[in-house]
Design brief:
It is built from five helices and twelve strands. By secondary structure, the chain is of the alpha+beta class. A hairpin with a 7-residue loop joins strand 11 and strand 12. The longest helix has 22 residues, at 3-24.
Length: 207
């Protein structure tokens, strides 16, 4: 076998190996909005429902499912927490995981109120809040939004907010977003089946 043919065969083998490596490292299909590259979050300093500091370091070392809301929320927040409470035991068996409610109503949501609210659904869940300047900066990093809205309630306002659940990886970076499901006129909540199916795949691929 001449040198030219040997070289050609070697190049073919090298190309085939590269293609196989790419195929094996192809991301799995998921329902979540999985970012092409994880996104670092803005630096933040919040307080949790036990009065402890909660910052970027608090997100490291485990996966985090984080969603924004508030304790006076009439539908999306209790519905989401109830679903997460149901799915959490199965998810936490295979992965280090924390669930965090990001309260965007610091005026009403005191430490005590947040603790009573979130632990009603699961004693391991956490709730955090801070000033609006801190909350806006973090929400932008997460790709989530909220706004204060006038209402006829006793306090004269409610809070409109995203219903997505953000998935944060053990490096403290935004990895994916689970989007709410539902049609016009329906309460739009994130599917727990999507989280149960997708989170192990994303974790295994991301390492």
């Amino acid at each position: 076998m001449n040198r030219a043919l040997t070289l050609a065969l070697a190049l073919v083998a090298l190309a085939a190996g590269a293609l196989m490596a790419l195929w094996h490292h192809k991301p799995p299909q998921v329902a979540a909005l999985w970012l092409p590259e994880s996104r670092p979050l803005a630096l933040f300093e919040l307080t949790d429902d036990r009065g402890r500091a909660f910052n970027n370091v608090s997100l490291q070392g485990q996966w985090t499912l984080l969603f924004m809301g508030y304790t006076s929320c009439p539908d999306v927040c209790p519905g989401t927490l109830a679903r997460l409470a149901s799915a959490y035991p199965q998810l936490a068996r295979s992965l280090p995981l924390q669930v965090v409610l990001l309260s965007v109503d610091p005026r009403r949501d005191s430490t005590e109120r947040l603790h009573q609210y979130v632990t009603y659904f699961n004693s391991e869940f956490r709730a955090v809040t801070g000033t609006h300047d801190q909350l806006y900066a973090l929400s932008r990093s997460l790709g989530l939004v909220y706004a204060m809205a006038e209402s006829d309630g006793a306090d004269g306002y409610s809070v409109d907010h995203s219903a997505d659940i953000a998935l944060i990886n053990p490096r403290g970076e935004l990895e994916a977003l689970f989007r709410p499901q539902g049609g016009v006129g329906e309460l739009r909540l994130v599917s727990m089946r999507h989280i149960i199916d997708d989170l192990p795949k994303i974790a295994a691929f991301s390492g």
